[in-house]
Design brief:
Blueprint (H helix, E strand, L loop, with lengths): L26 E3 L4 H10 L10 H7 L1 E3 L61
Antiparallel strand pairs: 1-2
This protein binds zinc ion.
Length: 125
């Protein structure tokens, strides 16, 4: 019905970012490499995509920059990913383990990760 060709929708669950309305975000294609593409699929819990080929994923699916930790980016603008980058920040009940293990403050409960707003430090009053 609606042809969304041209628009780039984020493949992450509960993420409605797309390149038409969210120009602040970068959108990253799934890796061409089969194993890494699978890693992304598993990471974002898109089980419906698990049987797709990496070339299908590469051509059709993208993940926006809010799902990547800071250290996954090559640059400050966050439009380049490091070669082994995997998205780990998702608004889902059982998010994947983060690649970055923060050693300080192990008691912090991060049940609700604020990923909707990029680079915004939310101070709850
Ligand atoms: Zn997204």
């Amino acid at each position: 019905m609606s042809s969304n060709k041209g628009a780039r929708w984020c493949a992450a669950p509960n993420c409605s970012n797309n390149s038409r309305t969210n120009t602040d975000f970068s959108f990253f294609r799934f890796p061409k490499d089969h194993n890494r593409a699978k890693e992304w699929v598993i990471s974002c819990r898109r089980e419906d995509l698990i049987n797709k080929t990496s070339s299908y994923l590469y051509a059709n699916c993208k993940i926006c920059s809010v799902h990547f930790e800071e250290q996954m980016f090559l640059n400050f603008l966050k439009n380049r990913l490091k070669p082994g980058a995997v998205p780990t920040l998702f608004d889902i009940p059982n998010p994947p383990n983060r690649k970055t293990v923060k050693r300080k403050a192990p008691t912090i409960r991060s049940n609700s990760i604020k990923i909707k707003k990029q680079k915004t430090t939310v101070e709850v009053k």
